[in-house]
Amino acid sequence: MTKLSTLVGVTFFVALLLSACSAEESMTQSSTNQTVNDTKNWFETDLNKTNLKILDYVKEIRWNDAIVTNGEKGQIIEVPITLLDYITTTNKKAKKSNSDDDSTKLNDYHRLLFTKIDDKNYKCFDLQILTNENNFDNLDKNFNYYSIKGDFNGFVTIYDPSKQKVNSQEFKDGKRPIHKLTDRMDESADCTYLGWWLDDGTFKPLFLLYCTGTGEDYGGGYLGGYGDNGGGGGGGVGGYYPTPTIAERLQERIDETDLDNCTKDVLHKLENLTNEGDILNMLERFSPEGSIYDIKMSIGSMKYPGDLAETTRSATSYYVVNMVFDENYIKGIGNTSRPTDLSVATTMAHEIIHGYLINLMGENQACGASGICDFPTVYEAYVQQKITNNPNIVPAEIHKEMAEKYVNEIAKTIQQFDTGTTVGSDYPYQLYLDMAWAGLSETAYFNKIYPNDKTHKNFEDRKRILNRFNAEKLGVTYGGQTVKGKPCTK
């Protein structure tokens, strides 16, 4: 009887324990479901506040497969997403590996990552996983913010659209590899584009998503990351580092190999101006939008005689802009002197904005059906785009605004280049404004403001602008304008 009572008691205790465990699991699942529902409701109510471009190309958001984890950085909600058919994201890491060898090909997987701000609000991040693992399961709940699987090889990137910051982390066998400082500083910036692969194997980008930095200037590499175990990190949401601006990236990506020493010196001086004077800040002030590309600078012959430089998109790479400076101009062929450094600096600043506009708008839109990508065509296309995007603003006001912005930004840069002193909040000197205005001399707006009409009130200003331009270009006094810059030795 005692044995039977004991057996009944044990059986009852086990049943009670199992029931309690089941109830606890049920409560945990219920809590998880409520968390996901709350997140979903916020997301769908405040969709416009997330500011994630990738959402326009999402086929499915898998809320039923959401992954909820808790740890040092608080509660993290990850929701796997599927992109539209044929849409993908890629960057240099992926493209280097996208060969015929499937073992090295990097595939992209995506999730939305949410963190809670308060009882009613969340922050939304774009999470991208790149890996060559053919059997990678994006729905695997064991692969999450706080847990990286021990055999994972690839890259995890988290992008914060509200702060325009990115944190990217590489993993090898679930651990973060230790890179030498020199290796990290030698690595170039890597930018992720959304687009699709064409039948011929080339990638057609639609737009830039974000860029990651790897050098010490950008936070010493990947110090805050995804996953608490394996790699030994402390989570990534609190570990973001500032992402370099478009202009900073561009300045790193100028290939000067084919320039002569004198022209290289001008470029280096432009790059190393302090404060607001350098080309970095010139571009940021002119237009902070845009995407990353490489500039290949060289010296050669011109398609159209008389042009000082030609800037076009490379025929072999979507990401390269070719910038060719006229050999006759740079070497002063047919003249007694070479152009002054002020002339070359102005031309270089002008062409960098030229290339920036081509890349910003896309070649088809910037150059039109004619395929002519000279500066007046590209500049006018950019202004027309601004007019189209601002129907409530009088077109003449946009023409005026863009011309003044172009002139002021170039003038500030070349004034500091020439004088060594920043302009600050002051207005640039007239001499440098004239040099900048000369860059617009073939545009319709310039010829409207400064018409070639001796009876017009601005005709003398037109003469002064063009004479200043020619004096620096030829390295001699021209039309009463004496040379300000210094020519290279011929």
Give the topology string: H per helix, E per strand: HHEEEEHEEEEHEEHEHHEEEHHHHHHHH
Number of E-state strands? 14
Fraction in helix: 25-40%
Strand content: 15-25%
Q: List unreliable stretches of 5+ residues.
A: 6-18, 20-24, 96-100, 179-188, 213-225, 228-247
Overall morphology? elongated
Q: Would you kindly provide a written description of the structure presented here, covering whatever features stand out?
A:
The structure is a single chain. Strands 1, 2, 3, 5, 6, 7 and 8 form a seven-stranded antiparallel β-sheet that branches. A four-stranded mixed β-sheet has the order 11-12-14-13. A three-stranded antiparallel β-sheet has the order 4-9-10. The chain is 38% helix and 20% strand. It contains 15 helices and 14 strands. The protein folds into two domains: 35-243, no CATH class; 248-474, no CATH class. The chain is elongated and about 85 Å long.
Summed up, what is this model?
The chain is of the alpha+beta class. It contains 15 helices and 14 strands. The strands form three sheets. Strands 1, 2, 3, 5, 6, 7 and 8 form a seven-stranded antiparallel sheet that branches. Strands 11-12-14-13 form a four-stranded mixed sheet.
